[in-house]
Amino acid sequence: MNALAAVRVAARPEVERRERALVRDAQRGSVEALEQLFRLHWPRAYRAAFVVVGDAAAAEDIAQESFLAAVRALDRFDRRRPFGPWLHRIVVNRAIDWARARTLRREVGVESVVEPAAPGRVEGERTDELAAALAALNVEQRAVVVLRYLLGYTPGEIAELLELPRGTVNSRLRRGLDRLQETLE
Amino acid sequence: MNVKRLLERVPADSAAQERAWAVVREAYRAREPARARRPVRLRVAFAVAGVALACAAAALSPPGRAVVNAVRRSIGIEGATPTAFRLPAPGRVLVSGAGGTWVASEDGSLRRLGSWPAAAWSPHGLFVVAADAGGLTTVEPGSGIVHWSLARRNVRLPRWGGTRTDTRVAYLSGGSLRVVAGDGTGDRLLARRVASAAPAWQSERHVLAYATAARAVVVRNVDTGAILAEHRARGRVRALAWSADRKVLAVATTRDVELFQAALPERMSIRFSGVRALAFSPDGSLALLTTHALLVYSSEGVQTLLRVQGRLAGLAWSPDGRWLMSSLPRADQWVFVGRGRVLAVSHVARRLGGADPTLDGWVPGA
Asked: Is the model more confident about B193 or about B355?
């Protein structure tokens, strides 16, 4: 059994059944089913990408490309597996890659990188603070914070999604939370 | 501190959701799944698009008749399906307009770079320069990373030229022509009172052709400021283009198309009015675009490739020089002409989130 197949979803059985039905119908060619799946998952996919990369345009691209990857692999998707974790893994890994690539480019091409990407829009004073606090975390810490607190995975599930030792996930979570707390409180 | 609650308050940009859904939906429709039948409405949609194009092309000249036949053959048969959003040749197409700046890849995937209404490729397609009323911005097309921005008022018609290692960006700001180095430094005024026509770079040189409001066409080295040539155009200048070998400058005016040999004072005039855009292919063929026709100029004269009833807008050669691309804004279509065929891509505005996007160039793949 694929490691990801073992990832448990914290959703109710009825929601899972409905989602499986949507995946089945989408595999059979139903645009309506695909649209429901898309609208069900877009907000969290976008938010997750946004929190990891801190850039609205990049988050849009990452979420969009993750859905495109899902569409391309749809016919091969095993309906017994939950759709959400599969998509979230794509989103978070792409977001991590994007953020790392940006960092690398800055290091190797400082002379040509004058301005970073435009900051994303986060409404409200408290969320502005959160955005600033998240920006102080490194990308790996942001990714586990997103998976834990936005997408609701347990540390064990995060370890499987990111193919990391569980201890590493726990330490990143702990350090990330400590840092967030320092900044926000 | 409730991190979960705070994270859930991050807004999930609904406009982004709609843009993404349009792209995902088209990718889904264009995939090749193990489906027994394509949904009826897609076939109907294509048939309608094909019929419309065939009707529009009814007045083709003799060289174009093969094109009409090709269109007829393709209706609902061989499949010019609404896969539609694939480019017929390798490369990436840059478009911009009310829906922002987008890069379309050969496989039909779309990437939105930002909300700029005007953009252009760097000479080798590595970067994009985008412009709006507030200034100039350079972006990496693959990652969307912004490299630098320059605040200037009313920036239009940016064009990026130069060599792979030392580039320049020319752009119009108000009624003036300015030039800045490819790394965003050294921005300066090059000329005042220029015409509202995009300047044209000689390939692999820092030599720029532009038109003044007084109908002069000026060829100038932007580094030294030296004027290399100056010609008086016969009409108001609408478009300029250099051949890839840098030998010929083509100028479309309201009265005709003029060809200037870079090394000689002589000019050659093509008695053909109404040309709004022109572009040289890599091998030197000159494509001309009028309101209702797409033409190619060669030593044998001007040949019509496509004539339509609607208004054509924009012109770009594929990097391999085998296809010409234009658009029919009122039909909301992109049109590709080449290899004896006409292909149409429908619902462009819906995909790109805004009506009447401008074609900003077709470059080789990344």
From this structure: B193
Task: Name the CATH topology of A123-185.
Answer: Arc Repressor Mutant, subunit A (1.10.10)
Residue B241: pLDDT band (50, 70, 90) is very high
Taking alpha carbons only, the member of B340, B301, B341, B343 closest to residue B326 is: B343
Q: How many CB atoms lie within 10 A of CB B166?
A: 11
Beta-carbon separation of B16 and A63 below 8 A: yes
Architecture of domain A10-121: Orthogonal Bundle (1.10)
Query: Within the 114-173 window of chain A, which residues sit less than 8 Å (CB to CB) from chain B?
Result: 114-118, 121-124, 126-127, 130-131, 145-146, 149-150
| Cα A65 to Cα B12: distance, rounded to the nearest angstrom | 16
Tens digits of residue pLDDT in B24-75: 887 787 665 444 334 333 333 333 333 333 333 333 333 333 333 333 333 2
Helix or strand (DSSP H, E) at A159: helix A155-162
pTM of the model: 0.55
The closest CB to that of A42, out of B17, B145, B149, belongs to B17
Listed in order, the ranges of chain A carrying CATH 1.10.1740.10 are 10-121
Using a CB cutoff of 8 Å and minimum separation of 24, what contacts does A119-124 make?
A119/A54, A119/A55, A119/A56, A120/A50, A120/A54, A120/A55, A120/A56, A120/A57, A120/A59, A121/A56, A121/B11, A121/B13, A122/B10, A122/B11, A123/B9, A123/B11, A124/B9
A141 burial type by CB count under 10 A (0-12 exposed, 13-18 middle, 19+ buried): buried
Which domain CATH number covers B51? Answer: 2.130.10.10
Closest CA to B206 of B190, B194, B193, B217: B190
Q: Write down the pLDDT at residue B81.
A: 35
Residue B92 banded pLDDT, cuts 50, 70, 90: very high
Which positions in chain B touch A52 (Cβ < 8 Å)?
A: none
Separation of alpha carbons B5 and B315, rounded Å = 50
What torsion, rounded to 10 degrees, do the Cα atoms B336, B337, B343, B345 define? Answer: 20
The whole domain housing B201 covers 46-363
pLDDT above 50 (res B4): yes
- Contact criterion met (CB below 8 Å) for B50 and B332: no
Range picked from B66-75, B260-269, B297-306, B348-357 for highest mean pLDDT: B297-306
What ipTM was assigned to the predicted interfaces of this complex? 0.81
Residues of chain A with CATH 1.10.10.10: 123-185
Minimal CA–CA distance to B347: which of B79, B49, B75?
B49
